[in-house]
Amino acid sequence: MQVWDVVIDPEHRGQGYGRAAMQLAETYAHARGARTLGLSVFGFNSVARGLYESLGYETTSVKMRKHLEAPELRDDLAQ
Prior knowledge:
Residues 1-78 form the N-acetyltransferase domain. The chain is mostly helical. The chain has one domain: Aminopeptidase. Helix content is 30%, strand content 5%. The protein has helices at residues 17-31, 46-54; strands at residues 2-3, 38-39. The protein has a two-stranded parallel sheet with strand order 1-2. Helix 1 (17-31) links the parallel strand 1 and strand 2 (38-39). The longest helix is centred in the first third of the chain and has 15 residues, at 17-31. It is elongated.
């Protein structure tokens, strides 16, 4: 099973709602026979990553990207 979105309104963050939501998701998944529960989180979201790690989630993959400038703007191609 996969968790797609966990959104806590800013005024309610830091009060344990995210942790409770994840624990509820784990209970739901387990009751339906799931052996694992996966999720994706943006690398810059250190607060969410900290929460998931504190709940025992492990990093299983890392995606990377690079913004490329248009070739016509690169000085090294103009020579």
